[in-house]
Amino acid sequence: MSVPRFWRRLKNLYNLIGTHCEKCGGFFYPPRNMCPKCRRNGIINPFKFKGAGVVVTYTIVHTAAKDYSKLTPYILAIIKLDEGPSLTSQVICDHSQIHIGMRVKSAFRKLGEESDKGMIYYGTKFVPMEEKA
Amino acid sequence: MRDVAIIGVGCTEFGELWDKSFRELFVEAGVSAIEDANVQGGKIDALYVGNMSGGRFIEQEHLGALIADYSGLASLNVPSTRVEAACASGGLALRQGILAVASGYHDIVVAGGAEKMTDVGVETTTDALAAAADREWEGIMGATFPGLYAMIAKLHMHKYGTTQEQLAAVAVKNHHNGTMNPKAQFQNEISIETVINSLMVADPLRVFDCSPITDGASAVVIAPAEIARKYSDTPIYVKASAQASGTISLHDRPDITTVDATVAAAKWAYKMAKLKPKDIGFAEVHDCFTIAEICAIEDLGFVKKGEGGPATESGMTALGGKIPINPSGGLKACGHPVGATGVKQAVEITLQLRGEAGKRQINGAEIGLTHNVGGSGGTAVVHIFGREK
User: Fold this and answer.
1) What is the band of A98 on the pLDDT scale with cuts at 50, 70, 90?
2) Residues of chain B contacting A5 with CB distance shorter than 8 Å
3) Where does the record place the ChsH2 rubredoxin-like zinc ribbon domain (chain A) (predicted)?
4) Which end of chain A is more exposed for a tag (fewer CB within 10 A), N or C?
């Protein structure tokens, strides 16, 4: 991904900032600049999520795309945040520990790197609730 | 709106075709379709070309013009349009062609699809395919396509008790069908053990749960139903064409194990054709992964939600079963040149309904359905075809 494209999303990726519609009360992560329910009538503002959630489903990725191949095998998961929205991220824990329904919390981690001299992506991954982030 | 019929079909062999280029593949499929329809090039009013990622796979865009030119139709200035909806590009190109003829705007239209995937390495292919998901919020987190479908499979297993063996049964069946399709990429039998002992790609999906990387092209010629018999003794009528959108990201879907876009497109298609799921004789569905076929037969209404695994294991979807699914071998065994797949499905239905499917012929086939999905469910296209209008 190009530098500006990543840079534009830094605060969302680093701090789990999404959006909230004041009109219908919906929470969105990833952020949306139009409320999918209220559409043009929505009132959208930034919202920082607490980072607590539950694993809806997961997989262990063994074959990854180029920028992620150094990380394999890794746990990819869909996590439903306590405020409502679901997102895709990775869970850092022992592979025998991961399960559907597991409570997790957000943690600042490296996402991937382009090459030895290329950009390193950081962002939000998740760890088991018991463990210190 | 006019009724529309398929009057000719063509398909290249599917596989790793290192000696053939994108343009050669499309021209080969297009020419066999127009020869099958017995149509002269000068009669063609428009071309629609389904292609997902020429830009990534062959570093070529402007594919509509390229195809028109190399088909010898640029000198006639025939309009040519590239259509893209990831893995549903072919189904969408077909639908655009059908709409153009149904509206009365064009008479004879060639709708085709092509993808040349083996000119780049597997990591580039994986990354190009990952572009069918949300790059900014799924891809960057390390999501791959097998990874997304693996998460569907994991939840399906958790909720409905679907097993590894039931997933594997999809691949075994489709490979068996592929042995009878001379165009298929894989024409060999496999066993349940082969699948469940193969290399893990994204737990629980193994390499034999995944459709392959494929080069290939397919095309159909479509015409208004009222003149179809001028070209073909056995025109195959389009009874319904429906397309629906769903969320681009899997994580935003209300139920991860249900493809809403498939449910919506199927509902509209059944209504348009005045048919119910039980009226469908057989179907070509989007089995990009084994779990995708299980979800498809549920979402299309052939079995109840959660019963796709046991139904497949019982032989219900085999060639001799109650509702044969993927007689061509599906994406799994016939191969999945992404832009071509949706059109190839219509080619297979046409061959079956004409009684020209050889060893894999389904006896008494009257009505067939195609189901083509883009990404993890952002787009779904459903067509219903019949021997009668």
Assistant:
1) very high
2) 136
3) 14-39
4) C
Q: How far apart are the first and last CA of chain B?
A: 14
* B144/A58 touch (CB, cutoff 8 Å), yes or no: no
Q: Two tokens at A14?
A: 């680093």
Strands of the A27-28 sheet, one edge to the other: A27-28, A17-21, A44-48
Q: Which residue is catalytic, options B11, B87, B210, B288?
A: B87
Q: Among residues B286, B336, B371, B383, which one is catalytic?
A: B336
* B4-121+214-236 and B127-211+238-386 agree in CATH topology: yes
Interval A20-52: pLDDT, tens: 999 999 999 999 999 999 999 999 999 999 999
Tokens of A33: 């600049």
The ranges assigned to domains in chain B are 4-121+214-236, 127-211+238-386
**What's the CATH code, domain A51-133?**
2.40.50
Q: What is the band of B162 on the pLDDT scale with cuts at 50, 70, 90?
A: very high
Q: How far apart are CA B317 and CA B222, in angstroms?
A: 29
ipTM attached to this prediction: 0.95
User: What is the pTM assigned to this prediction?
Assistant: 0.97
Question: Which residues of chain B lie closer than 8 angstroms to A90, CB-CB?
Answer: 141-142
Give yes or no: B371 in active site.
no
Residues B175-217 have pLDDT tens digits of 999 999 999 999 999 999 999 999 999 999 999 999 999 999 9
Q: Is B286 a catalytic residue?
A: no
The domain defined by B127-211+238-386 folds into: Peroxisomal Thiolase; Chain A, domain 1 (3.40.47)
Question: Are B142 and A76 within 8 A, CB to CB?
Answer: yes
